[in-house]
Write a structure and sequence with these properties.
The complex is a heterodimer of chains A (266) and B (65).
Chain A lengths: L5 H4 L15 E4 L6 H11 L3 E8 L4 H11 L2 E4 L7 H15 L3 E4 L12 H13 L3 E6 L3 H10 L5 E2 L13 H10 L6 E3 L5 H9 L4 E4 L1 H4 L4 H21 L22
Chain B lengths: L1 E4 L2 E4 L5 H7 L8 E4 L2 E3 L14 E9 L2
Parallel strand pairs in B: 1-5
Antiparallel strand pairs in B: 1-2, 3-4, 3-5
Classes of the chains: A alpha/beta (266), B mainly beta (65).
Amino acid sequence: MPSGSALADAGGLTMFYGFVPRSRFLLGTAGYPSPDILQQAICAADAEIITVSLRREGSQGGAFRELLSQLNRRVLPNTAGCHSVKEAVTTAWMARELFDTRWIKLEVIGNADTLQPDPFALVEAARILCADGFQVFPYTTEDLVVGEKLLEAGCEVLMPWGAPIGSGQGLRNIEGLRSLRAWFKDVPLIIDAGIGAPSQAAQAMELGFDAILLNTAVAKAQDPVLMAGAFAGAIRAGQEAYQAGLMERRDMAAASTPVFGLAQFS
Amino acid sequence: MQIELNGQLVETDAQNVAALLHERQIDAACVASAFNGQFLPRSQYESQRLEAGCRLEVLSPMQGG
């Protein structure tokens, strides 16, 4: 068996705080050419969970609220743009009231250029929010120790990045992510951020990750709806490949056609 | 009096947060707020009095990744 995950151990079911998702594809809602294309992309992705944010009340707020009610998807609010514990926790409290959910995608950014999480502030904010009854989805790195601290804080899901947000670089530290998967066998792990192509999403799923969260790669595609479907297919393929068990890699060739019965011509 | 609403200085006669939202035609059920940097639960909109120079952030759902 490949190194297991909550997925394998629970008979093929991954659970996010007791919620069993039908789809392993979580989709962000930002940056689409139009609300209509966003809606079509969510359908093409078959995404059950979509991420949203909170911004100052303005002219677009009402329209998006209406769209959300039509979409009828499970909403995962984020704390995007927060750089401190206080900002993130305050945003989470506001999100809980506004979206009527205990789920929060916790982002506490430590570097404005790489949008790398601040692990110290992240753990502190996670501790506060978990103690307050939130179900926290922390955007983190592949760092095992930070992962341990987040679990100690009360998180039951980890969301390591593949690469910096919006970079499309794919899995920048495959060996680190492989270690993370192997170490946290029973913890649902969602690759969040940095995925640029369906092949990269499939690769993550083949490694045994439980789900993929992405936004830019779909929203900024020339045809977001078509790309959403491409990612959905890749994620499904990667998950099935993991469950099927990938063959071991070899350094040298190994003939697949039997040698037995081979004709002798000399 | 003058207060800061979402980073903009505004003049208002409203005495509390609920009245301000009403004045601005903002549906209180569709927003979440922070008063002087602290989360303000919806249940406290009536009781939270405004004072000159106070800061109010009023947020609504938006697209996000």
